[in-house]
Amino acid sequence: MSSTDSHLSDEWQRPSPVGPSLRKDLWVALVLAGATALSVSLTRSAGVFTEAPVWHVALWVALISLPLALRRRWPEVVAITASVVFTAGAMLEASDMLFSNICLYIALYSIGAWSRHRVAAKWVRVAIVVGMFIWLFAQLIVQANQLTMMPDLSRDGFFSPYAAFGVLQVLINLVYFGAAWYFGESAWNSARKGAALKNSTAELAAERERTAAQAITLERVRIARELHDVVAHHVSVMGVQAGAARRILSSDPGQAADALTIIEQSARSAVDELHTMLGALRGDDAPGLEQTSQSSSTRGIAQLGELADESRTAGVPVRLSIVGEERAIPATIGLSIYRIAQEALTNTRKHAGPGVSTDLRLRYETDAVELEITDDGVGPRRQFAAAVTSGASAETTGLGQRGMRERVAAVGGELHLGGRPRGGYLVRARFPLMNRENA
């Protein structure tokens, strides 16, 4: 079975004909009835089959042709009727020499092309063909013993002229019935392949729609994750600096002005990043997508120092250390490391409480790079956060930690989140490198 056929089960049935097809069949049957009537008239005028009464001939013409109007709805019944009427017409000398054969051929063809019961179609055709050949052989044997039938054909000899005539009749009938069988099966197979192709096309169209929807969803999730990281980071910095400026505004205007400057710089930076990212949400605007990708690609391990400086400026001391021999890291991993560090430092500022300090470590190993952020915070929400482990569900971890998990999973890494035994919180992300470099 071909790949196209595999889209349909073995129980596939050709759909029943609808109104236009049935009207077409009716017109074909009426035309064949008229042509058969004309052929019978010419046959009788030629002195052949003249013994049957006219009403027999009229009834025979109607029965051999008009049932073909239903050949696609009940092909087996129509074929059996046509074969019986064909044989009866020849025996009663109410037949013709041409169009009755065409009617029988169409009836046999229709079984193969339109039967919705393939086993029944096979055995009905076998029965008709075998019956027709039995009748043919019987006729040849009877005529061989009747010298008045075709007296010009000698019966003498092993392969007499009459024997040659009989062999010719057999060959003609083999071609006749074989063609009806073959072309009927071919029509059914073509219809089956057409249905399979239509079904396959519909499945491919649905799959394209699903793929497009998934791509849109994934892109929206990615953009939402980027927006969350950017907004949470810059807003937390601005919040800390605004609070500090409010407290010292009257006592130390100079330091308050410095805090406001930091707020302004953080706001500008946030607006710049948001401007490039939101370009991806402008529908089919390809430049917006390119700008987003370019903006994201500028963030990586090299900017960890900037994150540490921003955190220190916001009042949370950060010790940045890099362990191992530095080497080139894929841009996707570099961006993930930067965003995870950004989210972890943002959470520390928001939840770790006053007087917290943070360690930011980047370790280069033989086959991996590892990012670790630890703090010694004891803020009021830290107790809940410490209960979150790497197996927690996305609903319990919030958007920030869900974003971390998605980033790490996207590059085949491992993430651990949880409280430390001696207090504080730990974020550790490990990214394998060997397979990527050997790929």
Topology (SSEs and partners):
Layout: H1 19-45, H2 54-65, H3 75-91, H4 99-114, H5 118-144, H6 161-248, H7 253-278, H8 286-297, H9 304-313, E1 318-323, H10 331-351, E2 358-364, E3 368-375, H11 382-385, H12 394-410, E4 414-419, E5 425-432, H13 434-438
Parallel strand pairs: 1-2
Antiparallel strand pairs: 2-3, 3-5, 4-5
Helix pairs in contact: 1-2, 2-3, 3-4, 3-5, 4-6, 5-6, 6-7, 6-10, 7-8, 9-10, 10-12
Task: Give a structural overview.
It is a single chain. The two termini are 38 Å apart. Residues 1-6, 285-297 and 380-397 have low confidence and may be disordered. Strand 1, helix 10 (331-351) and strand 2 (358-364) form a beta-alpha-beta unit. The chain has 13 helices and five strands. The protein has 439 residues and is α+β, with helices and mostly antiparallel strands. It folds into two domains: 5-208, no CATH class; 301-439, Heat Shock Protein 90 (2-Layer Sandwich), CATH 3.30.565. Strands 1-2-3-5-4 form a five-stranded mixed beta sheet. The chain is rod-shaped. 64% of the residues lie in helices and 8% in strands.
The pLDDT mean sits at: 79
Biggest beta sheet attributes: 5 strands, mixed
Q: What is the radius of gyration computed over CA atoms, rounded to a whole number of angstroms?
A: 44 Å
N-to-C series of helices and strands: HHHHHHHHHEHEEHHEEH
Count of distinct strands:
5
The spatial strand order of the largest sheet comes to 1-2-3-5-4
Task: Summarize the amount of helix as a percent range.
Answer: 55-70%
Assign an overall shape: rod-shaped
β-sheet strand percentage: 5-15%
Judged by helices, strands and strand pairing, the structural class is alpha+beta
N-end to C-end Cα span: 38 Å
Count of distinct structural domains: 2
Count of DSSP H/I helices: 13
Low-confidence stretches: 1-6, 285-297, 380-397
